[in-house]
Specification:
Length: 1324
């Protein structure tokens, strides 16, 4: 029994007769006395231990304590309040309702305590309250009403069906409308009815008849009880009809219990498969009156004239007039269902469903099923099931299933009788589908091997089932008489595959034959001719015997032949397995090459067959004949062009050996089989092969040999007769006439058209003198290479020569006939002819002059190598000789005559002006005040040179007269370029640059003085444009000598002579002193990063070496600066070379107009005219986009002296955020500059540690003047430059450290801008 629900009510009655204390005391007493007990105990029987009397006494005591007299209404209200406020309503009612009026009690149960119909949770508590009210106040609730409440409570724990049965029984027993539980039991009965109806409907759909019968068997009893209890049962039946429409069918349902019990063995899947059959044993949903659905259908009867009858969802098909068979067929079907339970195999249920569920049921299908059931063999059932189910699958699956079933049907006659027609139709349909598919695949070129194999397998299986043949088409049965084996099919497919992939010829014909044969064997007879059938069978036979690829490919080549008869091809195929491997390999290679090179294949096959035995020759001769016919005349042309004479003759003799004396027909036979050709080859082989070999060795006689070997008919009869005369003459010719006769016979045309003329000429030469033969040879050569007019002139001259004999003249005339000329005839010369002769003579004269020039150049070259020896040779042959210098001067153009002076027979001097160079260029290239440059040049095989400035002469005249001894640099091919001082005079970067360029030029060989002059002039014109080492163009104008970016050039310049690097000390000692001061400050910081490419590994060494140096002014005035430096210390030379080359720009002291005014006294100004070529190139690219002003921007930058050397060498860099950042970066990363110099002056640090010992500078700070060609951030006059390539340092102002009188920008910016403009324009 459910625990009674306790709930709190918000209702409280306030009476003048009650107090809260008394009510609370009543609640405590009732709870204490009742405890957990209720009026109805377990088992839904009255609780005998329930304290009915005590509870009433507590209430009476409570009422007795009320003040004054109370009315019935007041007492009812008071007690109703107590009941409402007490949680367990049934206990409160047991304690109070005895003192209440019946009406008040019933109103309380009807209104206050009532619940919603169908509220199963609150229902037990409500029923307890009704029962308790009946016990203490029968006037309010009758005993029958309390009994129905007890019955309703007792029904709550039953199953759905049992619960509905009990509810309906209560309704049958009687529940009047005025009963408190009337609406509740009506609602519960409806809900239970709906639930039970859904439950049994699910069981019906699942055909769970055993469970459905157990759940619904009470309905038949209910029908009996309801009939006996009419009319009181109307409520129950109405509820059933309203909520369970087919309840009466279930009530009348009386299935075969044993059958539905057996059907419980079906799995859910089997039951789902057989649902329509199992439904026959289910309830009658047609009329709701019969015991089963089957009986209901049978009761309806069947129309005799119809052939199809529906029983539930199953269609039974009978012959017209046999409708009475349907009940028996239904019974047979159900017995088959029972049998399927016994075997319990999925295949049994599947075949049963296929025959009787998915299609109409017929006696034949039932017979089949009964036969399978009688056999009781699951494997047979499985095969039948697969065969029938495969109808909806692919044709391959269908035939596979049928082929597995056919052996069984051959044994089981009854089963064959039952399903034979179906299997026959299935076989016929599947075979036809496979045949259609095969035809479609073959015609469209799709792969068909799988279809062929399956079709063969099906046919092989059908060969074992002759009982099936009568039901098949006669055309199909006809195929079985010669059905191919699987081995045959494999062979055919292998043949076809090899033919498709073979690189030997076009095998499409073979593929077609195989496909046609397959169609003839597998689809329809009579589609091929007898020849094809015999040939393919022979090919299959060979395929089984020979497995090597050579024989197989050779067989394919034989099969595709069209000229050879089928019998011959079959003989070849039969012979192939017996042939030797070597012969097969050779024959296979020949056939393989036939398509690409048919003519060589013919020759090779001829050679092969000529050496084989007669039986093989007889077999393969038709193949050769077909090849010869196909090639025709092309074979002869090929053989003549490619075979040696002996090979050609042997080839023809081999053909004659193979074919013998054949009857040759020019219209149909191969040209190579011409008997006349064979006879001529025999004559050549026997008599003239020696002559032919000699002609063949002469490369001019190619067409001659071909004409002789070919023979044949010429324009004047048989050509062989004429050719044989020529061969006889050649066979007996004299030695002196051989050259002329060999030349003449080489003119024989391939077609023999000039054979008679050639033979006549050869005959005449045979009688001519040796001189006449030589003249004829010259005429032939002239006729082959010169115009005919010239030939006739020459020929006429020779014919009129007094020393020519008559035989010689006759030979000349015969030779002229060969060229179709008639020297004895008179001829009027035309202007065109005369012009040809004149032009020829002019060309001859020009050629003579060119040869003379060549000889003169050779003389010049020999003179440069060995003057005396060459002179003796020339004198010995009577040729006048001249000097090398005279020759060179003679070749000068007029414009250079005045600048080149002859010194002696070997030497000259060239003059080059230097007036176009600016002062900065002169300073940096070490040219000083020189106005001219002299090149002293020695003309020889290995020419030599040296360079001198006019300033070095000092009144000594021309350079050549400065001294009687010169020490020039000798330029040797492949030799080194000069890096040491050459000859006398001071070394300078300009001389170093020019010397290397001239040496490179002369290393390729001296050509002329003009070429040397052009080279030097071009370099001086753009001095500084190229690398000082390799002359590669910098791409931007550089005012100082520097190298390109290649490391090899830097290293070469660094290793140059010390004198080259010390030139700047002589020219500008203060600039070098300034550089050394920068190095000293950087080294004093101890940071090697501030000394780019320093040769020393620590700064202490740098300081030590610096202090070894004397002052720059003392070095400038020394007579031998290089010796003075080398005498100090090897490290001193290393240091100076590094300092002078590390800065690839050009720093110099500012002088004259380059000095910027307004700076404090004692200020030293230095101009950095150019930076490295790379930096200047990057800066120039910015200039092309500079549009803000017509001039670049002038800015200033302050820095400490220790940073100055790195800035001078590498330019300013953005070092914000690195270890070299010196100050803050308030406006972001960049180079901080200023428009006002005084702003930057605040960031200029002094020397700090002093200066190197020999310096003239001390106690100064340096301010940088910059040129800017790019954008910058400008907060309050400070410019933050993000891109370092837009800045160039142009001025370095060395200002006394304690002097703060820095000029304003307005006083110096115009002057700086003017200098920047001059630098860009090239004026400086």
């Amino acid at each position: 029994m459910q625990t009674l629900r306790r709930s709190r009510s918000n209702f409280s009655i306030k009476s003048k007769f009650s107090t809260h204390g008394q009510s609370d005391n009543w609640h405590r007493q009732i709870s204490l006395e009742a405890g957990d007990q209720h009026p109805i105990g377990p088992g839904y029987v009255p609780n005998t231990s329930f304290p009915w009397t005590t509870l009433r006494q507590i209430t009476d005591s409570y009422l007795a304590k009320k003040r004054g007299k109370i009315t019935v209404e007041d007492r009812d209200a008071c007690l109703i309040a107590l009941i409402r406020n007490y949680a367990a309503k049934d206990i409160a009612i047991a304690a109070c309702t005895h003192a209440m009026s019946p009406k008040a009690v019933r109103d309380l149960l009807t209104v206050d305590l009532n619940i919603e119909p169908g509220d199963s949770f609150g229902l037990p508590s409500y029923l307890q309250a009704i029962i308790a009210a009946n016990h203490v106040n029968e006037g309010a609730v009758s005993a029958l009403e309390a009994q129905r409440a007890i019955e309703l409570m007792a029904s709550s724990n039953a199953s759905a069906g049992r619960y509905l049965e009990r509810l309906l029984q209560i309704l049958i027993n009687g529940v009047p409308a005025n009963f408190l539980i009337h609406s509740h039991i009506q609602t519960l009965a409806r809900l239970a009815c709906v639930e039970f109806a859904a439950q049994v409907e699910r069981l019906r759909h699942q055909c769970q008849w055993r469970r459905a019968q157990a759940a619904t068997e009470w309905l038949s009893r209910f029908v009996q009880r309801s009939v006996e209890s009419l009319p009181e049962n109307l409520d129950s039946t109405q509820i059933l009809y309203a909520n369970f429409p087919h309840w009466y069918a279930w009530a009348n349902w009386n299935p075969d219990v044993a059958r539905i019990g057996r059907w419980e063995l079906f799995s859910p899947m089997q039951r789902a498969t057989l649902t329509n059959a199992l439904a026959l044993e289910g309830p009658d949903y047609i009329s709701d009156r019969h015991a089963t659905l089957r009986e209901a259908v049978e009761a309806q009867g069947f129309i005799a004239s119809q052939t199809r009858h529906s029983v539930a969802s199953i269609v039974f098909e009978v012959e017209s007039g046999f409708a009475n068979d349907v009940p028996n067929m239904v019974d047979r079907l159900l017995r088959l269902v029972d049998a399927a339970v016994v075997t319990s195999e999925n295949d049994d249920t599947a075949i049963l469903a296929y025959f009787c569920i998915s299609q109409s049921v017929t006696n034949r299908r039932l017979n089949c099923l009964e036969c399978l059931s009688h056999l009781a063999d699951p494997s047979i059932s499985a095969l039948v099931s697969q065969a029938y189910r495969a109808r909806n699958e692919s044709w391959g699956a269908q035939m596979a299933a049928v082929m597995r079933l056919l052996p069984i049907l051959g044994i089981q006659h009854s089963l064959r009788t039952a399903i034979g027609p179906d299997i026959s139709n299935l076989v016929r349909g599947t075979l036809e589908e496979m045949q259609r598919r095969l035809l479609s695949q073959i015609r469209s070129g799709q792969p068909s091997s799988e279809t062929e194999t399956r079709l063969q397998a099906c046919g092989s299986g059908l060969l074992e089932t002759p009982w099936l043949w009568p039901s098949l088409d006669s055309s199909l049965v006809d195929l079985f008489k010669d059905w191919p084996t699987i081995e045959d099919i494999d062979c055919l497919q292998s043949i076809r595959s090899l033919a498709k992939t073979s690189s030997t010829g076009n095998m499409l014909e073979v593929v077609t034959k195989i496909n046609d044969y397959l169609v003839n064997c597998l689809v329809k007879r009579g589609t091929i001719n007898t020849g094809t059938r015999i040939l393919v069978k022979a090919l299959i036979k060979l395929w089984k015997q020979a497995t090597d690829p050579d024989r197989r490919l050779l067989a394919l080549s034989v099969v595709q032949g069209r000229v050879i008869t089928t019998n011959f091809r079959c003989r070849c195929l039969d012979q192939l397995p017996q042939l030797e491997d070597g012969f097969v390999f050779s024959l296979r290679a020949i056939i393989h090459n036939h398509d690409e090179a048919p003519s060589p294949a013919c020759v090779d096959l001829t050679t092969l067959l000529a050496t084989t035995e007669a039986s093989i020759l007889t077999c393969w001769r038709p193949v050769l004949n077909r090849m010869l016919q196909n090639q025709g005349q092309k074979l002869i042309d090929y053989a003549l062009a490619n075979l040696k004479a002996k090979e050609w003759v042997k080839f023809l003799l081999d053909i004659h050996k193979i074919f013998g004396e054949v009857k040759w027909d020019p219209a149909t036979s191969a040209p190579i089989l011409n008997p006349q050709l064979h006879r001529w080859a025999t004559i050549i082989d026997m008599m003239y092969m020696h002559v032919i070999d000699e002609l063949e060795a002469d490369t001019r006689c190619g067409s001659t040999v071909q004409c002789i070997l070919a023979g044949g008919d010429g324009p004047y009869g048989h050509l062989e007769e004429t050719l044989e005369r020529a061969l006889l003459l050649m066979l007996h010719m004299e030695a002196y006439s051989k050259p002329a006769m060999m030349t003449l016979i080489s003119l024989l045309q391939r077609d023999g058209s000039n054979a008679l003329a050639i033979v006549d000429a050869l005959s005449s030469l045979d009688s001519a003198t040796e001189q006449g033969c030589d003249i004829c040879l010259q005429v032939v050569d002239f006729a082959q290479n010169k115009p005919s007019e010239l030939v006739e002139v020459v020929l006429a001259g020779y014919l009129q020569a007094p020393d020519s004999t008559d035989a010689d003249r006759e030979a000349l005339r015969s030779v002229a006939e060969v060229f179709d000329m008639r020297p004895g005839s008179t001829k009027d010369w035309s202007e065109a002819g005369l012009k040809v002769v004149t032009d020829y003579l002019d060309a001859e004269y020009a050629e003579l002059f060119a040869e003379a020039q060549r000889l003169e150049e050779m003389r010049f070259l020999l003179k440069s190598i060995d003057p005396q020896g060459t002179s003796k040779i020339l004198e010995s042959v009577g040729i006048e000789d001249g000097s090398a210098v005279d020759d060179a001067l003679a070749s000068l153009p007029p414009g250079l005559i005045s600048v080149v002076e002859r010194v002696d027979d070997m030497r000259v001097e060239m003059l080059f002006p230097l007036t176009h160079l600016t002062q900065l260029q002169r300073l940096r290239f070490g040219l000083g005040n020189a106005r001219s440059l002299y090149l002293h040049f020695v003309i020889a095989h290995d020419p030599a040179f040296c360079l001198h400035l006019d300033s070095e002469m000092k009144g000594k005249g021309r350079a050549g007269h400065a001294t009687t001894i010169h020490h020039p640099w000798q330029a040797i091919s492949g030799g080194e370029e000069p890096d040491l001082p050459i000859c006398q005079g001071q070394t300078s970067p300009a001389k170093y640059h020019l010397s290397r360029a001239i040496a490179r030029h002369l290393a390729e060989g001296f050509t002329s003085l003009e070429a040397v002059h052009v080279l030097v002039t071009s370099i001086l014109k753009d001095l500084g444009k190229g690398c000082i080492t390799c002359a590669r163009d910098h791409g931007v104008k550089i005012r100082g000598p520097t190298t390109c970016s290649q490391a090899v050039c830097r290293n070469a310049f660094r290793s140059a002579s010390l004198e080259v690097h010390l030139c700047q000390i002589r020219q500008d000692p203060d600039a070098v002193d300034f550089l050394l001061s920068m190095v000293y400050s950087a080294a004093s910081s101890g940071n090697l990063q501030l000394l780019p490419n320093c040769p020393f590994n620590n700064t202490a060494t740098v300081l030590q070496v610096l202090n070894l140096l004397p002052s720059m002014s003392s070095l400038q005035n020394s007579d031998s600066m290089a010796e003075a430096i080398r005498a100090l210390n090897p490290q001193v030379e290393q240091l100076l070379k590094w300092v002078c080359t590390a800065c690839r720009g050009f720093i110099s002291s500012a002088q004259g107009s380059l000095l910027i005014p307004s700076f404090p006294a004692g200020t030293h100004q230095f101009l950095l005219a150019t930076h490295s070529p790379e930096h200047e190139a990057a800066f120039s690219r910015h200039l092309s986009t500079w549009n803000a002003f017509t001039q670049t921007r002038v800015l200033f930058h302050g820095t400490s002296l220790d940073r100055l050397f790195a800035i001078t060498c590498e330019g300013l860099k953005v070092l914000s955020g690195t270890s070299l950042q010196a100050h803050g970066a308030a406006s972001g990363a960049g180079i901080y500059c200023a428009s006002e110099p005084v702003t930057s002056w605040g960031y200029c640090a002094g020397q700090g540690q002093g200066n190197w010992a020999g310096s003239r500078f001390s106690n100064f700070r340096v301010l940088l003047g910059l040129e800017n060609a790019g954008s910058s951030v400008s907060p309050r006059g400070v410019h933050v430059v993000k891109d370092a390539t837009t800045l160039c340092v142009r001025y370095l102002f060395m200002i006394p450290a304690n002097d703060n009188s820095i000029p304003k920008a307005g006083h110096i910016t115009p002057a700086l801008a003017s200098v920047y403009t001059s630098l860009r324009s090239g004026a400086l």
